Amino acid sequence: MSRPTPDRRDRAVAELCEHFASGHIELDELEHRLAVVESAQSEAQLTELVVDLPALPGTPPVLVEPPAPRGWALAVLGGSSRKGVWRPPRKLNAVALMGGVELDFRDAQLAGGVTEVTAVAVMGGIDVIVPPGLPLTVSGLGIMGGVDQVEHDAGVRDPNLPRVHVRALAVMGGVAVKVRASKKVEAMLSKRDERRT
Question: Which residue has the higher pLDDT, 168 or 57?
Answer without folding.
Answer: 168
